[in-house]
What we know:
Layout: E1 7-13, H1 19-30, E2 35-37, E3 46-53, H2 60-64, E4 68-76, E5 78-80, E6 89-92, H3 101-109, E7 113-117, E8 126-127, E9 130-131, H4 132-137, E10 147-160, E11 163-170, H5 176-187, E12 191-201, E13 204-205, H6 212-220, H7 224-227, E14 230-231, H8 233-236, E15 241-243, H9 249-253, E16 293-298, E17 301-308, E18 315-320
Parallel strand pairs: 3-12, 15-16
Antiparallel strand pairs: 1-3, 1-14, 2-3, 4-11, 4-12, 5-6, 7-10, 8-9, 10-11, 12-13, 16-17, 17-18
Amino acid sequence: MNNNINGVVNVYKEKGFTSHDVVAKLRGILKTKKIGHTGTLDPEAEGVLPICIGNATKLCDLIMEKRKTYEAELVLGLKTDTQDMTGEIIEKYSDTIELSDTEISNAIKSFEGDYAQIPPMYSALKVNGRKLYDLAREGIVVDRKPRNIYIYGIDILEIKLPVIRIRVNCSKGTYIRTLCNDIGERLGVYGCMGYLLRTQTGIFKLDDSVKLSEIEQIVTDDRLEESGILVKTEDILDYPKLIVKDRFKKLLLNGNVLTSEMFMERNKVADNTDGNTGAINYETRAYDNNQILYRVYCEGRFYAVYKIDKESGLYKPEKMFMA
Length: 323
């Protein structure tokens, strides 16, 4: 068992695998137990699925918070029980779909911004301790409370009725198949999702993702470190950088609350952009009023993520990375 692997691998999840399948397979390839994914993708969906390994598993929830980008196929004229093409057709638009590009664009763009989305019955969300998809398979439909999500932008890539290709940049918790269903409803012709491809989660992009078969070959060839596919834990975080003065190192190691006086008092460093994350490195005791989380270092080593309490001005440990 290999317990010395720490970081995140940007896996390309292929069609047919569940997110849990990917975790199980990667656990076997890397021969490590401490591993977790950063948000589920439906079995028929493909694309970016960051997998956290070792001490990076502490970052799973932080990566989940990042915005996502998808490319999807919206199929008009059909309504299915799963809201995608894998489900049973329950409604079909009987007439020829005659919509102008302007009508389509206006309907799609109307979903940008705040969006109270009702989760689909075929989802892993739980109601009274039971997963919705289990209830759906038993023919049981229950009321679901709308969830507040945010659509940062929707680009129309192609219109070839009844199919429309879109790119969606959105907050966590967004169901793209529900978005497709809702767009179809707004257009008055029904709609469901065809294919789904996740192209980005936070800093992780499609072009940099690797398939399980490629990872297996890299590990077989003993090239994991040199391959560059394992992103170091500290390089994943796009939070500003704070450096603890050496004499306060013990307080940091113990996970104590820190004050601004315990950090190095320096101006913004000249080389202020992290090449891996694009984050701005602030080695200063002053903080951005909009900033909450920080990467904390001491003696050149990354140790923790700290969160500032804006009222007291104290820095409190959010995640510790001692291994």
